[in-house]
Structure formats: C-alpha cells, structure tokens
Specification:
Order of helices and strands: HEHEEEEEEEEEEE
Protein name: DUF1176 domain-containing protein
Number of helices: 2
Oligomer: single chain
C-alpha cells in the first residue's frame, strides 16, 4: 500500500471522527438536559404534594408522585388496590425523607420503604431480619408501624390463621454513612387472636464494647 494511499485513508478516518464529534456531544448534552428537566419536574411535583408538610398520608393513587409510582411498579409493588385503607405515608426521620407504601403480595402483603432523598430517583430500602442460621435482608419486612416517640419502626409478620404466633422486628434508621435500617430487637408472640398479644424478646442488639486503649 503506497504512502499516498495510507495518508488518504488516515485523512478520511480523521475527517469522520471530526464530523462525528459534535453529534455525540449534542447527544450527551441532550441527556444531561433531560435529566435536569426530569429532576425539576419531580421537585415541582413533590413541592405541590407536600405543601410544606414533612409527615402526611395520601389515599388516592392518582396523587402518588410519578417517579415513586414507577419505582414501586418496577419493584413489583401493587399498591393501588389497598391505598384507600392503607395510605402511603411520607415522613422525615433524622432529616431524611422516606415513604412507606403497602404492597399487595398475592394473598398477603407487606409495607415497603422508599428512600426519597432524591425525589426524582426513589430507591427501595432493605431491612435485615432474623433467619434460620443468622440474618438476611428483605424489602418486604411485614406490616410496618412508626413509633415516633421512640424513633423506631416495627415490622410485624404472621399468619391470618387464628390463633397463630407473630414475629416482630424493631428497627431504627441509621444515617451515619447512608440511609439504612438497623435491627435492634426481635420479638415473638405466643399464638393469639386479635390485638393484645404478649411479646417476648428473643434477640436484642448490645452496645459494641469500647476499643481497647493501645497504650
């Protein structure tokens, strides 16, 4: 292949790269603009819904923020059929915004928690739970109640059969590194019907020992 031919090919290739450059930059800029617009729209939607509130509920599926509804659907959460009786609850805990949403799972159901630190990108949250040989994680911990005075979440699981035992995990929100739930206590109730079960603690987190002084 002659030097002239090689030089011509290089010129063509470089010309193609130079020609292709601006469209690639334009696409990147277009994606960035779309992301900014989506974030602005999500913030506008949230501001209108919250209206200055930090702790509130909604029972109309049409009011669920669009990005939260999308995150719920992508995680397999069927919330619309139960939302009137079990509203979506929005709250701010230790400065962090969360949503608790009840999701129907075949015959039973469970709450799920979503991290709303960025309302344009809600993130499903995981809960640790006691397993047969240790601990595992799940995004469906059971029926969740928020004990605001204690700063704790309680997630209860059990059977619809009566009487039957129930299991309850007690969590706090850990915000030292990133938002995550930490299990602090596990309780079980004897077989019973209705409310008023007596709970027995079967595991409780202990304070970590202070590190030894290296001196």
């Amino acid at each position: 292949m002659s030097a002239r031919l090689i030089a011509g090919l290089i010129k063509v290739l470089l010309g193609g790269l130079l020609t292709a450059g601006p469209p690639l930059v334009s696409v990147a800029r277009g994606d960035e603009t779309a992301n900014i617009n989506a974030r602005r729209e999500a913030l506008r939607e949230w501001s209108s819904l919250a209206n200055g509130r930090t702790d509130f509920e909604i029972s109309d599926p049409a009011l669920v923020p669009r990005m939260l509804a999308l995150a719920a659907e992508q995680s397999g959460c069927k919330y619309s059929d139960d939302i009137e009786k079990l509203p979506v609850r929005f709250m701010k805990v230790a400065g962090h915004r969360l949503a608790l949403m009840f999701c129907r799972l075949s015959v039973t159901g469970s709450h799920r928690a979503f991290d709303l630190s960025d309302v344009s990108r809600p993130k499903p949250m995981e809960f640790p739970y006691v397993a047969l040989n240790g601990f595992g994680t799940t995004d469906t911990p059971g029926f969740i109640t928020w004990r605001e005075e204690a700063g704790l979440f309680q997630a209860e699981t059990g059977s619809d059969l009566c009487p039957s035992p129930h299991l309850r995990h007690v969590y706090r929100l850990d915000v030292t590194n990133r938002e995550s739930f930490v299990v602090v206590r596990v309780e079980v109730s004897a077989p019973a019907c209705g409310a008023g079960q007596e709970w027995t603690t079967i595991w409780e987190a202990k304070p970590w020992p202070a590190p030894a002084d290296p001196r």
